[in-house]
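An example makes the point: we print one protein in full, the chain in one-letter code, the fold tokenised, without further comment:
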Amino acid sequence: MAAKAFLGIGEGNAAETEYQQLTEGLIKDILNVSQLSRDAPDRENVLKEIKDRSTAWVAKYRRQGSVQGRPSFANTYSAVNAIAGHINSFGFSTPVPKKRLDRIVKDLTDAERQLQRGR
């Protein structure tokens, strides 16, 4: 058991637990924000918070080899990148087009499913 803990394999792996929790939280929050109407109060501040959290998530996990090859990482990263690109190009007040939003939601639901499988 000590060898598994040393190698970061199995239960008790704090980094794995942290990845799971941060990614699940980010996914749930982005999915909730995607349902906000254009005239929702405090929409801009909520979107800024999501963008900041997304940037921090990417900075934390982008170079970690232990998560780079995971489907949950790839799908979450793709969705986060699409949201950030939209915000950078069009600002916080312009809603995400339906086709792009549908793709983001699909990526996030796929990532959520993969996280539940430990992938």
The mean pLDDT is 87. The chain has six helices and no strands. The domain at 42-119 is CATH 1.20.58.810 (Methane Monooxygenase Hydroxylase; Chain G, domain 1).
